[in-house]
Amino acid sequence: MVAAVCMINVDLGKEIGVRRDLSMFEGVKELLHLFGEYDFLVIIKAGDLRQVNYIVDKIREIDGVSATKTIIGAEEEE
Hints:
The chain has two helices and four strands; from the N terminus they run E-H-E-E-H-E. The chain is globular, with a radius of gyration of 12 Å. Strands 2-3-1-4 form a four-stranded antiparallel sheet, with helices on one face. It has one domain (2-72): Lrp/AsnC effector binding domain/regulation of amino acid metabolism (RAM) domain (Alpha-Beta Plaits, 2-Layer Sandwich). It is of the alpha+beta class and 78 residues long.
């Protein structure tokens, strides 16, 4: 199991739709709406790095997502 944290910037006024779309991803285990530099923080857990990459690519395709920054966990979980 690979864990990742994805910090997301969203276009002004698109937060509700982006939150709804993010909550539907199977690998998204936690979703936090933030104040500050980023609008959302998503905890992703997937079977391997390729699945994490797929999820992040799909997040970037959401209408209203303007930027992402992803940090991958250093160790795989069992």
